[in-house]
Structures are given as structure tokens and as C-alpha cells.
């Protein structure tokens, strides 16, 4: 009877250990390698290292349906109430760009919030910090629906404001 119990317990213990390791690996993903998804539209966000920029704290891209890609950045505002101000841009010109040109290709702007498993709300962390479980882009859907990227030449499924952590890039 003892040998039978060990035969059953060993796979259970191994499975439980593997689940803990997977949970630890998932929780330890740095924000610059995080991948998020939005369930309603299937939109995804892939973060990438920001490089050596003195002002940009996060870079990412939002991938919508019809292979529409929006380029995203976050820059922390200065002062005692600093916030990660995010921007999503579509087909922006490169090089010496005017403020007017930048405004024309910016599809969404706002503070990027995060949420943990218990519903605690925070701010998007800068590179090097663990990726939060959830990201919130306030008024993302309505802004994108009014944008130049929406419609026949762009995407057709409007994402909601909440994106959940799906995984970590290697």
C-alpha cells in the first residue's frame, strides 16, 4: 500500500512543483519583455526595451486586427505627481517631425495604469520592474474608434481599456 501511495503522490507533488515554478516565472517577467492581451478584440501589446532614451521609460507596440500596428511609448511626467504618460501612434513620419505632424498621427494619449490580482491600482512601472498582471488604458476604445487607423484601411475590432498579462518574451 505504501508503494502505491508514493506512486500517486509523486506525480501530484511534481505537478504542484511545476505549477509553482511556472507561477514564479510568470510573476518574474520584467515589464520590458511582457506580452498583454485584450480578450474582446484579440489585440495584443508587446513591450520592448526602451534603449538609452533619457525621456522614454517604456516602448511597446499594440497589434490590432488586420495587421494594424500602433507604436507606443510612455514617458514619466516630472514633479511630485509624476505619471507614466502614454501615447499610441500610427504611421508617424520619422526624422524632424513638427508638433502638428505628431498630433495628427497620435491615436491615443493618457496615463497608463496597472492592477494587481487583488484589484489594487498602480501606475505602469518603468523598465526593470516586474510586469503587472493588468494594464489599463483609459478611454482607449473610444479614442481608437475615432482615429485614422480605424476603418477599411486599418483595424475593425475596437479593444477595450483592459489588457491582461499573457506571457513573457524570451
Strand order of the largest sheet: 6-5-4-3-2-1-10-9-7-8
Span of the ends, CA to CA: 45 Å
Uncertain residue segments: 1-6, 8-26
Q: Taking all residues together, what is the mean pLDDT?
A: 84
How much of the sequence lies in strands comes to 25-35%
Q: Write the element-wise H/E pattern from the N-terminal end onward.
A: HEEEEEHEEEEHE
- Taking all Cα atoms into account, the compactness measure Rg is 20 Å
Backbone structural class: alpha+beta
Shape: globular
Oligomer: single chain
Q: The biggest beta sheet, please?
A: 10 strands, antiparallel
According to DSSP, the number of beta strands is 10
Number of domains: 1
The number of helical runs is 3
Helix content: 10-25%
Question: Can you tell me about this structure?
Answer:
- The protein contains three helices and ten strands.
- The longest helix is centred in the first third of the chain and has 26 residues, at 2-27.
- The protein has helices at residues 2-27, 99-105, 140-145; strands spanning 34-37, 44-48, 56-63, 69-76, 84-89, 106-111, 113-115, 121-123, 134-136, 162-168.
- By secondary structure, the chain is α+β, with helices and mostly antiparallel strands.
- 22% of the residues are buried.
- It has a ten-stranded antiparallel sheet with strand order 6-5-4-3-2-1-10-9-7-8.
- Mean pLDDT is 84; it is low at 1-6 and 8-26.
- The protein has one domain (30-168).
In brief, what are we looking at here?
This protein is α+β, with helices and mostly antiparallel strands and 170 residues long. The chain has three helices and ten strands, in the order H-E-E-E-E-E-H-E-E-E-E-H-E.
